[in-house]
Amino acid sequence: MAALDGMAALVTGGGSGIGLACAQRLAADGAVVTICGRTEQRLIAAADAIGERCRYVVADIADEAAVSGAAQQAAEPLGALHIVVANAGGTQAIGPLALVDKAAFENDLSVNVTGTFLTIKAAVPFLMPGGGSIVAMSSIAAALTHPLMAPYSVAKAALDMLVRNAADELGCYGIRVNGVRPGLVPTGASDPLVSHDATRDDYLAQMPLNRLGHVDDVAAAVRFLAGPESSWITGELLNVDGGHTLRRGPDLGPLLGPIFADALTRISSGVQP
Questions:
Q1: Burial class of residue 28 (count of CB atoms within 10 Å of its CB; 0-12, 13-18, 19+)
Q2: H-type alpha helices, the chain
Q3: CA angle 130, 30, 34 (to 5 degrees)
C-alpha cells in the first residue's frame, strides 16, 4: 500500500506551479486529490497530467461558498477529508509603499490571508471525523523584509500567525496545521524575478546552497507535513529555501526601482505623483 492510500486531499491553486507539483506528489503516494482554481482549462490540463486519482472543481478561494463547495466535493470520494493544501496566493501590490494602491494592498491580504482562512474554515467540518493535516503555503517573505513587495510580506506574515493559531485551536480534534515557506522557485508567477539577471543573482547570493528551488522541493516538504510521517508536528513553519532565511531578503531595486524612480523623485520633492 502507498503511504496515503485511503486519504482524500484538496489542493487550492492546484492547476499549475507549486500547487500542481503538490497534487502530483500526493496522488503518486495514493491520495485521491481534488484540485481547485479559477481557470477551468488549466485545471483540466492539470487533472489529465496527474491521472485517474485527480478530480477538479472550479472555485475562487475569495468566495466562501465556492470554497465550501470545493471542500465538500473533495470529501465525497471517501466520505471525509484528510489532507488540505492551502496553496493559492499571489501578489498585485508591487512597488514602494508610498505608491501602492489601496485596492492592490487589500487584494494581497484577501488572496493570501482571507483565502487561506476560508479554506481552513471550509475544510474543518470534513476533517473533524478523524483528524487530518492542513498545510498552508507561506513564503520567505513572511520572515525577511522584501522592499518593493511589502504588502506581500505583510500578508504572508499574517498567514503564518493564522497557521499557528489554527494549529493551537484545532489540535484537540486531531487536526494538524503547518506552513511551508518557499524561497525563489521558478514558476510562471516568479518568472520576472528569475529572468532578471541581477535579481536572480542576488537571490542566489543569499542562499548557502546556491541554487534556485524546484517545485518538487516544495512538494516534498508539503507531502511530509501532510502525511503520517509528521503526525507529531503542528504549528510549524518550514523554510524550503536553500538556506535563504539565514541571510537577508532580496534586493529588488535593480528590477523594480527604475519603474518607480520618477514618481519617487516627485514625492521627495513634495509633488504628488
A1: middle
A2: 17-28, 40-50, 64-75, 102-109, 115-127, 150-170, 191-195, 197-205, 215-226, 253-268
A3: 75
Three cell numbers written together for 118 = 476560508
Residue 239 grid coordinates? 523554510
pLDDT in tens, 165-224: 999 999 999 999 999 999 999 999 999 999 999 999 999 999 999 999 999 999 999 999
Residue spans of the domains in the chain: they are 8-190+213-250
Q: What is the pLDDT of residues 50-66, one digit of tens each?
A: 999 999 999 999 999 99
Residues 6+ apart with CB under 8 A from 229: 3
Residue 183 cell numbers, joined:
524561497
Of 175, 78, 161, nearest to 121 by C-alpha is 175
H or E element: which one contains 266?
helix 253-268
Task: Give me the phi and psi of 128, to 5 degrees please.
Answer: -60, -35
Say if CB 54 and CB 28 are below 8 A apart.
no
Residue 22 one-letter amino acid: C
- Return d(Cα 76, Cα 79) in angstroms, integer: 5
Cell of 7: 486519504
The architecture in CATH of the region 8-190+213-250 reads 3-Layer(aba) Sandwich (3.40)
- Set of cell numbers at residue 126: 470534513
Distance CA 64, CA 118 (A): 6
Catalytic residues, by residue number, are: 152
Q: Which residue type, as a one-letter code, is found at position 265?
A: T
Which amino acid does the sequence have at 17? G
| Residues facing 32 on adjacent strands | 8
Give the predicted TM-score (pTM) of the model. Answer: 0.95
Q: CA 118: distance to chain centroid?
A: 14
Of all helices (H) and strands (E), which one includes residue 223?
helix 215-226
